Amino acid sequence: MVTRDPHPFPGTGSAPAGTTSTRPGGVYWHLVVPVKDASLAKSRLEAPAPLRRADLARAVAADTVEAACAAVGAESLTVVTSDEVVASLASGLGARVVADPGDGLDAAVAAGWRDEPDLGGRRIGWAALLGDLAALRPEDLHQALAACAGHRAAVVPDAEGTGTVLLTSTTAPPQGRFGPGSAARHEAAGAVRLELDLPRLRRDVDVAADLRSVLALGAGPHTLLATARGA
């Protein structure tokens, strides 16, 4: 039997060390990361026993949120979630937390963008990042945002090329069209498709095979700890 840690994300009260510039591409990004309540998330993902699916989902989200915070800075990050554990983590990092309205991913992203940070009139861009990128590193997101900064709107597809892991705009908050096949919908709406060679950014976690891919790429510390406990 695995004893559950009452503090599942120890040592996460400050942003990770070794961060990059928080202005990728010369843009002050308002980055929104939507994270579904872990009790409802990842219904297709089989967690390795005895690990609970909800605990694995929270670990994946924790790695994503920490990498995002390190890439853009806490003042530029909004996490949209109704999961108390993830909300506590994000608040501890200094990010803003907005309650998930519960109407799907598009509504969650829109709620996050309405909570716009005060960046003193500086050039701002809007970005939405999936919350299940367990292998993400700050430098991956920094490089992706720098590439997106050269376009009015851009979409970075997932590893399969069909979904969306990152959606950006440098003119106004874009309308999210997330879900299966979203990359094509975002492209049809005017976003430039960027097939970036960033496998850790583009590997989201939906099923067990995705988790195996993430572990091969190099999962973040929370995901590694969770899967080790489940082994």
UniProtKB/TrEMBL annotation:
Domain MobA-like NTP transferase: from-to ranges: 64-169
InterPro entries on file: CofC (IPR002835), MobA-like_NTP_Trfase (IPR025877), Nucleotide-diphossugar_trans (IPR029044)
Taxonomy, superkingdom: Bacteria
GO molecular function: GTP binding; phospholactate guanylyltransferase activity
Low complexity bias locations: 10-21
Keywords: GTP-binding, Nucleotide-binding, Nucleotidyltransferase, Transferase
Residue span of region Disordered: 1-21
Record Gene3D superfamilies: Spore Coat Polysaccharide Biosynthesis Protein SpsA, Chain A (3.90.550.10)
Matches recorded under NCBIfam families: F420_cofC (TIGR03552)
Full protein name: 2-phospho-L-lactate guanylyltransferase
Naturally occurring in which organism (per UniProt): Ornithinimicrobium humiphilum
